[in-house]
UniProtKB/TrEMBL annotation:
<comment type="similarity">
    <text>Belongs to the glycosyl hydrolase 1 family.</text>
</comment>
<feature type="active site" description="Nucleophile">
    <location>
        <position position="362"/>
    </location>
</feature>
<keyword id="KW-0326">Glycosidase</keyword>
<dbReference type="Pfam" id="PF00232">
    <property type="entry name" value="Glyco_hydro_1"/>
</dbReference>
<dbReference type="InterPro" id="IPR033132">
    <property type="entry name" value="GH_1_N_CS"/>
</dbReference>
<dbReference type="InterPro" id="IPR017853">
    <property type="entry name" value="GH"/>
</dbReference>
<dbReference type="GO" id="GO:0008706">
    <property type="term" value="F:6-phospho-beta-glucosidase activity"/>
</dbReference>
<dbReference type="InterPro" id="IPR001360">
    <property type="entry name" value="Glyco_hydro_1"/>
</dbReference>
<dbReference type="InterPro" id="IPR018120">
    <property type="entry name" value="Glyco_hydro_1_AS"/>
</dbReference>
<keyword id="KW-0378">Hydrolase</keyword>
<dbReference type="GO" id="GO:0016052">
    <property type="term" value="P:carbohydrate catabolic process"/>
</dbReference>
<protein>
    <submittedName>
        <fullName>Aryl-phospho-beta-D-glucosidase BglH</fullName>
        <ecNumber>3.2.1.86</ecNumber>
    </submittedName>
</protein>
<dbReference type="GO" id="GO:0005829">
    <property type="term" value="C:cytosol"/>
</dbReference>
């Protein structure tokens, strides 16, 4: 059997993109509550009605209905995140908000009721706004202490319910999206590389500290890192392009290197020197970094090409990183290049480098769906394009497993439609479940099964044998 018996099939979401209820039950504001246009738009003074995330898909109130649908598809795991500002409304509070804690107790209980293992991201693109405004997010070393308090609280609370944890979502994205990823309030244009790499150092220390605390409080739990996975191909066989691709790969792999090997890789010395970066370390930091992760998780949507030729340097649309378009690949409606084989390549690249279990915790197609009525009078979406995308990627996961890679599981992104992270719109849909909500705020919020719902159900029940 290609996929192991206990392969963790499932789906993934993030709190800020689906929960809504942005100011209910004591939740504090997060960086997302004042970013109505995602990464492209302004940061507003106050939450504004045009911010789709304030209501999201109302998962906060409808999670029981949604988890039931996940169970019907046969999910073995469900990845979600905890909204930090539900637990510590300002981030630096001393005592947690009990109602926030209770919400996740209820959600995890609901999952466990159906035998679905919660897979929990501790920080997914939402920092308590007060930490961004008053401390400038992860640029400030004090965030490590606040994070320590937060993780200790949630580990103690959910130690009997959650076995799989991820520290920072796509931790490498802070390089390109300092506000969304690192809660850094200072405008990107004013940040120096020194600021950014110092902020990264703080996150890396905090992540390793979470691993340490996690292992102590929950000896049977597994704590992983989460990387935005983008393999870089040389645009041509020109050795300069090959070296450029290696350089760009290292910009991302450096994050995994620290998490898995427990120390800064040697090649970063050169980079820091070249860019006049001096990481300020406190005594004990190097020791803490030695708390390495149990597994590596990553998102995979696109691959990219690298060139050393400035003439050819035009960028393709991409996840949060964008590189030179690959002439052999087609793209989604949002311009993201589709490359199933790149996933096999990425899995092999990571496994060759680390020999650690890998978990694909995001992959999927953002597309415009049309709700239609089928012959039985049921509303649905005939999303053959999504089925094809997921099938083709999963076939490559199977091939990577045959190559010898240890893959723990696969969770599709946005298993239920949700608000996009980069553009904050709902018309970009990823789900097996359609949510009736439109970007103008209209819609009933009712849920409908798409064609891909039954397709995925079969993939899970046959443990991948139905893939073609
Ligand atoms: C990843 C993020 O970068 O990509 C998710 O972890 C995000 O939060 C996903 O939603 C897809 O991106 P987008 O912009 O289409 O929502």
């Amino acid at each position: 059997m290609t996929f192991k018996k206990d392969f963790l099939w499932g789906g993934a979401v993030a709190a800020n993109q689906c929960e809504g209820a942005y100011n209910e039950d004591g939740k504090g504001l997060s960086t997302q509550d004042v970013a109505p246009r995602g990464i492209v738009g302004p940061i507003t003074e106050e939450p504004t009605d045009d911010n789709m995330k304030l209501i999201g898909i109302d998962f906060y109130h409808r999670y029981k209905e949604d988890v039931k649908l996940f169970a019907e598809m046969g999910f073995k795991t469900f990845r979600t995140s905890i909204a930090w500002s539900r637990i510590f409304p300002n981030g630096d509070d001393v005592t947690p908000n009990e109602k926030g804690l209770q919400f996740y107790d209820d959600l995890f209980d609901e999952c466990l009721k159906y035998g679905i293992e919660p897979l929990v991201t501790i920080s997914h693109y939402e920092t308590p706004l007060a930490l961004a405004k008053n401390y400038d997010g992860w640029v400030n070393r004090k965030l490590i202490g606040f994070f320590e308090n937060y993780v200790t609280t949630i580990f103690e609370r959910y130690k009997n319910k959650v076995k799989y944890w991820l520290t920072f979502n796509e931790i490498n994205s802070v390089l390109n999206q300092p506000y969304m990823s690192g809660g850094i309030f200072t405008d990107k244009s004013k940040l120096t590389k020194q600021d950014l790499y110092q902020a990264i150092h703080h996150e890396l220390v905090a992540s390793a500290m979470a691993v340490k605390i996690g292992h102590k409080i929950m000896p049977n739990a597994k704590v992983g890192c989460m990387i935005l996975g983008v393999p870089n191909y040389p645009l041509t066989p020109n050795p300069d392009d090959v070296l450029e691709a290696m350089k760009q790969d290292r910009e991302n792999l450096y994050f995994a290197d620290v998490h898995v090997r427990g120390a800064y890789p040697k090649y970063m010395d050169g980079y820091f020197k070249e860019n006049d970066i001096k990481i300020i370390m406190e005594p004990g930091d190097e020791e803490i970094l030695k708390n390495t992760v149990d597994f590596i998780s990553f998102s995979y949507y696109v691959s990219s090409c690298a060139t050393a030729d400035p003439e050819k340097l035009k960028t393709a649309e991409g996840n949060l990183f964008s590189g030179v378009p690959n002439p052999y690949l087609e793209a989604s409606a949002w311009g993201w290049q589709i490359d199933p084989k790149g996933l096999r390549y990425m899995l092999n690249l990571l496994y060759d480098r680390y020999q650690k279990p890998l978990f694909i915790v995001e992959n999927g197609l953002g597309a415009i769906d049309e709700l239609v009525t089928d012959e039985n009078g049921n509303k649905t979406v005939i999303d053959d394009y999504r089925i094809k995308y997921l099938n083709d990627h999963l076939v490559q996961v199977g091939k990577a497993i045959e190559d010898g890679v240890d893959v723990m599981g696969y969770t599709t992104w946005g298993c239920i439609d949700l608000v996009s992270a980069s553009t904050a719109e709902l018309r970009k849909r990823y789900g097996f479940i359609y949510v009736d909500r439109n970007d103008d705020g209209t819609g009933t919020l009712d849920r409908y099964k798409k064609k891909s719902f039954n397709w995925y159900k079969e993939v899970i029940s046959t443990n991948g044998k139905s893939l073609v």
